[in-house]
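Appendix C reproduces, verbatim, an entry submitted by the partner laboratory led by Prof. M.T., so that reviewers can inspect both the input and the predicted structure.
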Amino acid sequence: MVAAVHMIQGPARTCVGCKERAPQRELLRVALVDGKPVADPRRRLPGRGGYVHRDLACVRRAEAQGGFARAFRARLVPPAVLTNAEELIRQDRGREEHRS
């Protein structure tokens, strides 16, 4: 029996929340700014970044389990909460519904 291989086209990244691999374009980049994680939807902020699914469950899991700190290889300034993620996720969902 041959196992099905999931092919990811283009660059792939691992979500720091659920640890599943996905195409980079499906994930939200998060960068470290002044010791706090900040969403970087345009992928232009300097420094190390982490990627997370555009899903609040993955964002919350990454915050709770230290996924962002591991991705940045740095300690985060408490409270290390990705404040603008919920707004960005809502905007993305609105764009997807508009396209349908």
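Residues 85-99 form the longest helix (15 residues). Additional entries are available on request from the coordinating office.
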